[in-house]
Design brief:
It is built from twelve helices and six strands. With 241 residues, it is of the alpha/beta class. Strands 1, 2, 3, 4, 5 and 6 form a six-stranded mixed β-sheet that branches. The radius of gyration is 21 Å and the shape is elongated. The two termini are 41 Å apart. The relative contact order is 0.14.
């Protein structure tokens, strides 16, 4: 899809990312990643083993986040590394292609976590963080233009898996699992063009920025009705009266 190719900036190396953060300060407490290589069609050609690291935060994790993710302050004290070390480990995992990679997340909350971690760590690795920020793509924003539920609401990561027939890779809110699920959604979205086209046709009338006559034409087409210039003229005149 040409629209997405522009976002990729011609990169063939892609890193699917998921960050978990604290409840209140939104500092990073875990990184999940899956690095892949795309073929000439933009499909995933090869994958590395997934990456996961726990990150020590300056503030408490919070009860809600601990229950959701299974990550607590004791775990971070035992297994966590500093934010700087975690980001260096991520760069090492991606390898020599780090500067020529796109970093894909599902939603913009991951970038909020990255930015909050930067503010809480004066020794943050500037080059690594800026590289991710510069080449970051929010796949949820992109995919939600084409896929909406019956009420016009965007799909969650789990619901996208269900819609596209992607089996869940494991428990949600494990950052490595979520990174794998995101990669699988990415691949399924671009390979299932017929399904995406059908969902897009249903989503179009829900956007609300089309004039009423155009919306009515889209609804008729989705119901399988024949739309002629005469029908279009009728809708225009109906709108103007």
């Amino acid at each position: 899809m040409k629209k997405f190719e522009k976002l990729l900036k011609h990169h063939k190396k892609v890193v699917f990312l998921d960050f978990e953060g604290t409840q209140y300060s939104h500092e990073m407490i875990a990184i999940g990643a899956l690095a892949v290589t795309l073929d000439r069609k933009g499909y995933i050609k090869s994958r590395k083993e997934p990456f996961k690291v726990f990150v020590k935060a300056k503030n408490k994790v919070g009860k809600y986040v601990s229950e959701l993710t299974g990550i607590n302050d004791n775990l971070l004290s035992e297994k966590g590394v500093s934010f700087a070390v975690a980001m260096e480990s991520l760069k090492k995992y991606v390898g020599l292609s780090f500067k020529k990679s796109s970093f894909i997340t599902f939603g913009n909350h991951d970038m909020r976590i990255l930015n909050q971690s930067i503010t809480h760590n004066l020794d943050f690795p500037k080059e690594i963080c800026s590289q991710i920020q510069k080449n970051y793509i929010d796949f949820a924003t992109f995919i939600n233009e084409f896929l909406r539920d019956e009420r016009g609401n965007p799909f969650s990561l789990v619901h996208c898996c269900e819609l596209l027939g992607v089996p869940l890779a494991g428990e949600s809110h494990d950052p490595a699992v979520d990174a794998i699920n995101l990669a699988n959604i990415f691949d399924a979205f671009f390979k299932n063009k017929s399904l995406v086209a059908e969902r897009y046709k249903k989503a179009l009338p829900m956007y609300g920025h089309f004039p009423s006559p155009v919306n009515e034409m889209l609804k008729k087409l989705n119901r399988g009705e024949t739309v002629t210039p005469e029908v279009y003229d009728e809708e225009v005149h109906k709108y103007l009266t």
